[in-house]
Specification:
5-stranded mixed β-sheet; alpha/beta; globular; Nucleotidyltransferase, domain 5; 40% helix
Length: 169
Amino acid sequence: MSDRPDWDLVVSVHPTYKGFGWVVFEGPLAPVDWGISSSKGNRSAKSMRRFQELLNQYQPSVLVLEKFAGDKTRRGARIQDLAQSMRGLAVNREMEVAIYPRELVSGLVADNPKAKRQQVAEAVCQLLPILRFRLPPKRAAWQSEDSRHCLFTAAAVAIAHFEVSRPNR
């Protein structure tokens, strides 16, 4: 008998102004597939279609998101609406939905609740070296955030989910 618990497929997404980053896991530190979906024009509708295709392809049991609404979140209304629509679609499919605050994710993945996105991405690469080739370079103060960070945020949220939901031994 295996010591490892049976994990359901988990999809973690991180919506952005261009689309969303996503990672599908079959267990802790076991990514199956990942990517970044971006679009131009009618981004929310196109993102929802791509998200639905992702759910159809993998049939995950759990959707994991970073907290997208509330006092401390700095997300635009369109991104909040997109994340809420993704959550609603998952609920309609009778999927479990887990939402974690950024501070918890950063604390669990980078050992620092106030870690910047770059620090979290680097910590994800330590845990999942297969993603290292997608790691964006550190940005200068005048540069905007690299769109690849959404992939690493999605991975970090999933890693935190597995840590939080780990069965007690």
